[in-house]
Amino acid sequence: MKSISEAYKDHPINLHNIIPIDFKKVHELPDSHTWPSLGQDSISDTSHDQVIPIIDIEDPNIVKLIGHACETWGAFQITNHGISISFLDEVESQSRNLFTQPSQQKLKALRTPDSVGGYGRPRMQPFFPKFLWQEGFTVVDQSATVDQTSKIWPNGDHTPFCHVMEEHQKKSKDLANRLLGLMLDSLEITKDDLRITLLGSSSSPEDLKSEAPHTALQLNSYPACPDPNKAMGLASHTDTSLFTILYQSSRSRGLQIKVDGFGWVTVPPVPGAFVVNIGDLLDILTNGRFPSAVHRAIVNQSHHRISIGYFYGPPCNSKIAPIPKLVDSNHPIRYRDMTWREYIGIKAKHFEKSLSFAAVNPEIRTNAQS
Ligand SMILES: O=C(O)CCC(=O)C(=O)O
Ligand SMILES: [Fe+2]
Protein backbone atom coordinates (compact mmCIF):
# COMPACT_ATOMS: atom_id res chain seq x y z
CA MET A 1 0.00 0.00 0.00
CA LYS A 2 1.40 3.35 -1.01
CA SER A 3 1.54 6.10 1.58
CA ILE A 4 0.06 9.51 0.92
CA SER A 5 3.55 10.99 0.51
CA GLU A 6 4.10 8.41 -2.21
CA ALA A 7 0.75 9.31 -3.75
CA TYR A 8 1.93 12.91 -4.04
CA LYS A 9 4.96 11.65 -5.96
CA ASP A 10 2.60 10.75 -8.80
CA HIS A 11 1.86 14.48 -9.16
CA PRO A 12 5.20 16.31 -9.14
CA ILE A 13 5.22 20.08 -9.49
CA ASN A 14 7.43 22.26 -11.61
CA LEU A 15 10.61 23.33 -9.78
CA HIS A 16 10.11 26.95 -10.85
CA ASN A 17 6.94 26.88 -8.81
CA ILE A 18 8.68 25.69 -5.66
CA ILE A 19 11.39 28.28 -5.00
CA PRO A 20 10.19 31.35 -3.07
CA ILE A 21 11.78 34.74 -3.71
CA ASP A 22 14.03 36.28 -1.10
CA PHE A 23 11.36 38.50 0.49
CA LYS A 24 13.97 40.45 2.49
CA LYS A 25 15.43 41.84 -0.72
CA VAL A 26 12.14 43.01 -2.23
CA HIS A 27 10.97 46.54 -1.44
CA GLU A 28 8.40 46.97 -4.19
CA LEU A 29 5.80 44.45 -5.27
CA PRO A 30 7.26 42.74 -8.36
CA ASP A 31 5.04 42.29 -11.39
CA SER A 32 5.37 38.52 -10.92
CA HIS A 33 3.51 38.91 -7.59
CA THR A 34 0.97 41.55 -8.64
CA TRP A 35 -2.60 40.26 -8.85
CA PRO A 36 -4.28 42.88 -11.05
CA SER A 37 -7.86 41.75 -10.63
CA LEU A 38 -8.10 41.76 -6.82
CA GLY A 39 -9.44 45.30 -6.41
CA GLN A 40 -12.05 45.76 -3.68
CA ASP A 41 -12.38 42.03 -3.28
CA SER A 42 -9.21 41.98 -1.19
CA ILE A 43 -10.43 44.47 1.38
CA SER A 44 -11.84 42.81 4.47
CA ASP A 45 -15.09 43.92 6.02
CA THR A 46 -14.61 44.05 9.78
CA SER A 47 -18.35 44.37 10.47
CA HIS A 48 -18.69 40.65 9.72
CA ASP A 49 -16.01 39.61 12.19
CA GLN A 50 -18.30 37.75 14.54
CA VAL A 51 -19.94 35.55 11.94
CA ILE A 52 -17.70 32.54 12.51
CA PRO A 53 -18.60 31.33 16.01
CA ILE A 54 -16.14 31.18 18.91
CA ILE A 55 -16.89 28.06 20.95
CA ASP A 56 -15.63 27.04 24.40
CA ILE A 57 -14.87 23.32 24.26
CA GLU A 58 -16.16 22.91 27.84
CA ASP A 59 -19.56 24.44 27.01
CA PRO A 60 -22.35 22.06 28.14
CA ASN A 61 -23.95 22.47 24.69
CA ILE A 62 -20.73 21.74 22.86
CA VAL A 63 -22.11 19.02 20.57
CA LYS A 64 -24.95 21.21 19.35
CA LEU A 65 -22.71 24.26 18.97
CA ILE A 66 -20.10 22.40 16.94
CA GLY A 67 -22.71 20.67 14.78
CA HIS A 68 -24.41 23.97 14.01
CA ALA A 69 -21.13 25.73 13.20
CA CYS A 70 -19.97 22.92 10.91
CA GLU A 71 -23.27 22.74 9.03
CA THR A 72 -23.70 26.48 8.70
CA TRP A 73 -20.20 27.87 8.26
CA GLY A 74 -17.90 24.90 7.81
CA ALA A 75 -15.70 26.56 10.45
CA PHE A 76 -15.50 27.80 14.04
CA GLN A 77 -12.92 28.98 16.55
CA ILE A 78 -12.31 26.78 19.59
CA THR A 79 -11.13 28.06 22.98
CA ASN A 80 -10.32 26.41 26.32
CA HIS A 81 -8.93 23.38 24.47
CA GLY A 82 -6.09 22.65 26.88
CA ILE A 83 -3.11 23.66 24.70
CA SER A 84 -1.56 26.58 26.57
CA ILE A 85 -0.90 30.02 25.12
CA SER A 86 2.71 29.82 26.28
CA PHE A 87 3.20 26.60 24.30
CA LEU A 88 1.57 28.15 21.22
CA ASP A 89 3.82 31.19 21.59
CA GLU A 90 6.77 28.81 21.46
CA VAL A 91 5.43 27.10 18.31
CA GLU A 92 5.01 30.51 16.70
CA SER A 93 8.42 31.71 17.75
CA GLN A 94 10.16 28.58 16.41
CA SER A 95 8.28 29.00 13.12
CA ARG A 96 9.32 32.66 12.92
CA ASN A 97 12.86 31.62 13.71
CA LEU A 98 12.87 29.28 10.70
CA PHE A 99 11.45 31.82 8.27
CA THR A 100 13.79 34.61 9.37
CA GLN A 101 16.83 32.50 8.46
CA PRO A 102 18.71 33.71 5.36
CA SER A 103 17.15 32.60 2.09
CA GLN A 104 20.16 30.52 1.09
CA GLN A 105 19.84 28.50 4.34
CA LYS A 106 16.10 27.89 3.88
CA LEU A 107 16.71 26.76 0.32
CA LYS A 108 18.86 23.91 1.68
CA ALA A 109 15.59 22.41 2.97
CA LEU A 110 13.73 22.95 -0.30
CA ARG A 111 11.24 20.20 -0.98
CA THR A 112 11.81 18.22 -4.12
CA PRO A 113 9.17 18.42 -6.87
CA ASP A 114 7.63 15.12 -5.83
CA SER A 115 7.69 15.43 -2.03
CA VAL A 116 5.37 17.01 0.50
CA GLY A 117 7.72 17.93 3.35
CA GLY A 118 10.18 20.82 3.55
CA TYR A 119 10.47 24.47 2.52
CA GLY A 120 8.87 26.04 -0.55
CA ARG A 121 5.93 27.73 -2.20
CA PRO A 122 2.44 26.35 -1.63
CA ARG A 123 1.31 23.34 -3.68
CA MET A 124 -1.50 25.46 -5.15
CA GLN A 125 1.01 27.77 -6.90
CA PRO A 126 0.90 26.06 -10.34
CA PHE A 127 -2.82 26.86 -10.63
CA PHE A 128 -2.17 30.62 -10.71
CA PRO A 129 -0.42 32.87 -13.22
CA LYS A 130 0.93 35.14 -10.46
CA PHE A 131 3.06 34.18 -7.48
CA LEU A 132 1.68 34.12 -3.97
CA TRP A 133 3.15 36.29 -1.21
CA GLN A 134 3.87 33.26 0.93
CA GLU A 135 6.57 30.77 1.84
CA GLY A 136 5.87 27.58 3.75
CA PHE A 137 7.47 24.69 5.56
CA THR A 138 5.65 21.36 5.79
CA VAL A 139 6.34 18.85 8.55
CA VAL A 140 5.13 15.36 7.67
CA ASP A 141 7.78 12.95 8.68
CA GLN A 142 9.85 13.65 11.79
CA SER A 143 13.11 12.13 10.54
CA ALA A 144 12.91 14.05 7.24
CA THR A 145 12.25 17.24 9.22
CA VAL A 146 15.31 16.65 11.41
CA ASP A 147 17.34 16.04 8.29
CA GLN A 148 16.09 19.18 6.52
CA THR A 149 16.26 21.57 9.46
CA SER A 150 19.76 20.45 10.41
CA LYS A 151 20.80 21.86 7.01
CA ILE A 152 19.11 25.19 7.79
CA TRP A 153 20.66 25.41 11.26
CA PRO A 154 24.07 23.79 11.40
CA ASN A 155 25.59 22.87 14.81
CA GLY A 156 22.48 21.21 16.26
CA ASP A 157 20.48 24.43 16.55
CA HIS A 158 17.51 22.74 14.88
CA THR A 159 16.68 20.66 17.97
CA PRO A 160 14.31 23.12 19.71
CA PHE A 161 12.36 23.57 16.46
CA CYS A 162 12.00 19.82 15.89
CA HIS A 163 11.10 19.17 19.50
CA VAL A 164 8.37 21.80 19.63
CA MET A 165 6.86 20.71 16.29
CA GLU A 166 6.73 17.09 17.41
CA GLU A 167 5.01 18.11 20.65
CA HIS A 168 2.57 20.29 18.73
CA GLN A 169 1.66 17.41 16.46
CA LYS A 170 0.97 15.16 19.46
CA LYS A 171 -1.19 17.73 21.19
CA SER A 172 -3.02 18.59 17.97
CA LYS A 173 -3.72 14.93 17.30
CA ASP A 174 -5.40 14.52 20.69
CA LEU A 175 -7.45 17.66 20.13
CA ALA A 176 -8.38 16.55 16.60
CA ASN A 177 -9.59 13.19 17.93
CA ARG A 178 -11.72 14.94 20.50
CA LEU A 179 -13.17 17.33 17.91
CA LEU A 180 -13.88 14.48 15.49
CA GLY A 181 -15.85 12.70 18.25
CA LEU A 182 -17.91 15.84 18.90
CA MET A 183 -18.57 16.40 15.19
CA LEU A 184 -19.71 12.78 14.73
CA ASP A 185 -21.90 12.97 17.86
CA SER A 186 -23.67 15.99 16.40
CA LEU A 187 -24.58 13.88 13.34
CA GLU A 188 -25.46 10.83 15.49
CA ILE A 189 -22.71 8.90 13.75
CA THR A 190 -20.44 6.59 15.72
CA LYS A 191 -16.69 6.12 15.22
CA ASP A 192 -17.63 2.58 14.09
CA ASP A 193 -19.84 3.97 11.31
CA LEU A 194 -16.91 6.10 10.20
CA ARG A 195 -14.46 3.19 10.40
CA ILE A 196 -16.68 0.92 8.29
CA THR A 197 -16.89 3.57 5.56
CA LEU A 198 -13.16 4.29 5.67
CA LEU A 199 -11.70 0.82 6.13
CA GLY A 200 -14.54 -1.57 5.21
CA SER A 201 -16.83 -3.82 7.24
CA SER A 202 -14.16 -6.47 7.71
CA SER A 203 -11.95 -4.01 9.60
CA SER A 204 -11.92 -4.01 13.39
CA PRO A 205 -12.01 -1.04 15.80
CA GLU A 206 -8.31 -1.73 16.45
CA ASP A 207 -7.60 -1.07 12.77
CA LEU A 208 -8.79 2.52 13.09
CA LYS A 209 -6.48 2.97 16.06
CA SER A 210 -3.50 1.09 14.64
CA GLU A 211 -3.74 2.66 11.17
CA ALA A 212 -2.26 6.02 12.04
CA PRO A 213 -4.24 8.95 10.65
CA HIS A 214 -2.37 10.84 8.00
CA THR A 215 -1.50 14.29 9.30
CA ALA A 216 0.72 17.19 8.29
CA LEU A 217 1.78 20.40 9.93
CA GLN A 218 1.90 23.34 7.55
CA LEU A 219 3.83 26.43 8.68
CA ASN A 220 2.88 29.50 6.64
CA SER A 221 4.89 32.71 6.50
CA TYR A 222 3.49 35.90 4.97
CA PRO A 223 6.18 38.61 5.15
CA ALA A 224 5.04 42.25 5.40
CA CYS A 225 4.08 43.24 1.87
CA PRO A 226 4.82 46.58 0.14
CA ASP A 227 1.43 46.62 -1.64
CA PRO A 228 -0.96 44.26 0.14
CA ASN A 229 -4.06 45.22 -1.88
CA LYS A 230 -2.44 43.83 -5.01
CA ALA A 231 -0.91 40.72 -3.48
CA MET A 232 -2.33 37.42 -2.29
CA GLY A 233 -1.02 35.24 0.56
CA LEU A 234 -2.90 32.04 -0.18
CA ALA A 235 -5.57 32.18 -2.86
CA SER A 236 -9.10 30.84 -2.41
CA HIS A 237 -9.03 27.10 -1.73
CA THR A 238 -10.37 24.24 0.35
CA ASP A 239 -8.17 21.89 2.36
CA THR A 240 -7.60 18.25 1.44
CA SER A 241 -8.16 17.06 5.01
CA LEU A 242 -11.02 15.84 7.17
CA PHE A 243 -10.60 19.14 8.95
CA THR A 244 -7.78 21.53 9.73
CA ILE A 245 -6.86 23.06 13.09
CA LEU A 246 -5.21 26.40 12.42
CA TYR A 247 -3.30 28.60 14.82
CA GLN A 248 -2.82 32.16 13.62
CA SER A 249 -0.49 34.67 15.23
CA SER A 250 -2.44 37.24 17.20
CA ARG A 251 -0.62 40.28 15.80
CA SER A 252 -2.35 40.54 12.43
CA ARG A 253 -5.45 39.43 10.60
CA GLY A 254 -5.23 37.49 7.38
CA LEU A 255 -7.54 34.47 7.29
CA GLN A 256 -10.83 34.95 5.44
CA ILE A 257 -13.63 32.46 4.88
CA LYS A 258 -16.12 32.76 2.03
CA VAL A 259 -19.65 32.67 3.37
CA ASP A 260 -22.79 32.65 1.24
CA GLY A 261 -24.59 35.94 1.65
CA PHE A 262 -21.61 37.64 3.32
CA GLY A 263 -18.72 37.24 0.91
CA TRP A 264 -15.22 37.11 2.38
CA VAL A 265 -15.41 37.18 6.18
CA THR A 266 -12.27 37.85 8.21
CA VAL A 267 -11.61 35.41 11.03
CA PRO A 268 -9.96 37.66 13.62
CA PRO A 269 -7.21 36.09 15.72
CA VAL A 270 -8.42 35.24 19.24
CA PRO A 271 -5.41 34.74 21.55
CA GLY A 272 -4.94 31.06 22.33
CA ALA A 273 -7.80 29.91 20.07
CA PHE A 274 -7.63 27.60 17.06
CA VAL A 275 -9.66 28.02 13.90
CA VAL A 276 -11.17 24.71 12.85
CA ASN A 277 -12.23 24.46 9.23
CA ILE A 278 -13.88 21.54 7.50
CA GLY A 279 -11.89 20.00 4.62
CA ASP A 280 -12.97 18.18 1.47
CA LEU A 281 -12.85 14.69 2.97
CA LEU A 282 -15.38 15.39 5.72
CA ASP A 283 -17.56 17.17 3.16
CA ILE A 284 -17.63 13.91 1.16
CA LEU A 285 -18.03 11.61 4.20
CA THR A 286 -20.93 13.71 5.58
CA ASN A 287 -22.59 13.78 2.14
CA GLY A 288 -22.24 17.56 2.08
CA ARG A 289 -23.72 18.14 5.56
CA PHE A 290 -20.43 19.73 6.69
CA PRO A 291 -19.29 21.84 3.74
CA SER A 292 -15.59 22.23 3.11
CA ALA A 293 -14.78 25.86 3.98
CA VAL A 294 -13.53 28.01 1.10
CA HIS A 295 -10.82 30.23 2.55
CA ARG A 296 -7.79 32.33 1.72
CA ALA A 297 -5.09 34.37 3.45
CA ILE A 298 -4.52 38.02 2.66
CA VAL A 299 -1.36 39.94 3.53
CA ASN A 300 -0.58 43.23 5.23
CA GLN A 301 1.98 46.00 5.08
CA SER A 302 3.29 46.09 8.63
CA HIS A 303 3.51 42.57 10.07
CA HIS A 304 5.15 39.32 9.19
CA ARG A 305 2.19 37.01 9.73
CA ILE A 306 2.62 33.36 10.72
CA SER A 307 -0.03 30.64 10.72
CA ILE A 308 0.30 26.96 11.56
CA GLY A 309 -2.21 24.48 10.17
CA TYR A 310 -2.60 20.91 11.40
CA PHE A 311 -4.16 18.89 8.58
CA TYR A 312 -6.02 15.95 10.06
CA GLY A 313 -6.73 13.08 7.69
CA PRO A 314 -7.92 9.47 7.90
CA PRO A 315 -5.61 6.44 7.55
CA CYS A 316 -3.75 6.47 4.23
CA ASN A 317 -5.52 3.45 2.73
CA SER A 318 -9.02 4.79 3.42
CA LYS A 319 -11.94 4.83 1.08
CA ILE A 320 -13.76 8.16 0.98
CA ALA A 321 -17.51 8.00 0.43
CA PRO A 322 -20.68 9.34 2.05
CA ILE A 323 -21.45 7.50 5.31
CA PRO A 324 -24.62 5.46 4.49
CA LYS A 325 -26.55 6.77 7.53
CA LEU A 326 -26.28 10.27 6.07
CA VAL A 327 -27.87 9.29 2.77
CA ASP A 328 -31.66 9.02 2.44
CA SER A 329 -34.45 10.26 0.20
CA ASN A 330 -34.16 13.77 1.68
CA HIS A 331 -30.38 13.70 1.36
CA PRO A 332 -29.63 11.98 -1.96
CA ILE A 333 -26.11 10.75 -2.43
CA ARG A 334 -23.84 13.59 -3.58
CA TYR A 335 -20.47 11.94 -4.00
CA ARG A 336 -19.12 8.75 -5.51
CA ASP A 337 -16.80 6.31 -3.73
CA MET A 338 -13.08 6.76 -4.22
CA THR A 339 -9.84 6.09 -2.42
CA TRP A 340 -8.06 8.92 -0.73
CA ARG A 341 -5.23 8.49 -3.23
CA GLU A 342 -7.67 8.97 -6.09
CA TYR A 343 -8.94 12.15 -4.50
CA ILE A 344 -5.39 13.49 -4.18
CA GLY A 345 -5.03 12.84 -7.93
CA ILE A 346 -8.27 14.74 -8.64
CA LYS A 347 -7.12 17.64 -6.48
CA ALA A 348 -3.70 17.78 -8.15
CA LYS A 349 -5.44 18.11 -11.51
CA HIS A 350 -8.59 20.11 -10.84
CA PHE A 351 -7.81 22.08 -7.66
CA GLU A 352 -10.88 24.13 -6.70
CA LYS A 353 -13.20 22.13 -8.94
CA SER A 354 -12.24 18.86 -7.23
CA LEU A 355 -15.42 18.39 -5.21
CA SER A 356 -17.45 18.78 -8.40
CA PHE A 357 -15.36 16.03 -9.97
CA ALA A 358 -16.10 13.83 -6.97
CA ALA A 359 -19.83 14.55 -7.17
CA VAL A 360 -22.26 11.92 -8.45
CA ASN A 361 -23.97 14.67 -10.38
CA PRO A 362 -21.54 17.52 -11.04
CA GLU A 363 -24.54 19.83 -11.45
CA ILE A 364 -25.19 19.49 -7.71
CA ARG A 365 -22.43 21.77 -6.55
CA THR A 366 -21.57 22.09 -2.91
CA ASN A 367 -21.36 25.58 -1.50
CA ALA A 368 -17.61 24.97 -1.25
CA GLN A 369 -17.40 25.88 -4.90
CA SER A 370 -19.60 28.89 -5.41
O1 LIG B 1 -2.76 31.46 6.90
C1 LIG B 1 -3.93 31.19 7.01
O2 LIG B 1 -4.69 31.80 7.76
C2 LIG B 1 -4.55 30.08 6.19
C3 LIG B 1 -3.63 28.93 5.92
C4 LIG B 1 -4.27 27.88 5.05
O3 LIG B 1 -5.35 28.03 4.59
C5 LIG B 1 -3.56 26.61 4.75
O4 LIG B 1 -2.41 26.42 5.20
O5 LIG B 1 -4.16 25.77 4.05
FE1 LIG C 1 -6.16 26.13 3.88
Automatic annotation (TrEMBL):
PROSITE patterns: FE2OG_OXY. GO terms for molecular function: gibberellin 3-beta-dioxygenase activity; metal ion binding. Its EC number is 1.14.11.15. Its cofactor is L-ascorbate. GO terms for biological process: gibberellin biosynthetic process. It holds the Pfam family DIOX_N. Residues 213-314 form the Fe2OG dioxygenase domain. It comes from the Eukaryota. Keywords: Dioxygenase, Iron, Metal-binding, Oxidoreductase. InterPro entries: DIOX_N, IPNS-like_FE2OG_OXY, IPNS-like_sf, Iron_ascorbate_oxido_reductase, Oxoglu/Fe-dep_dioxygenase_dom. SUPFAM superfamilies: Clavaminate synthase-like. PANTHER family: 2-OXOGLUTARATE (2OG) AND FE(II)-DEPENDENT OXYGENASE SUPERFAMILY PROTEIN-RELATED (PTHR47990). Belongs to the iron/ascorbate-dependent oxidoreductase family. This is gibberellin 3beta-dioxygenase.
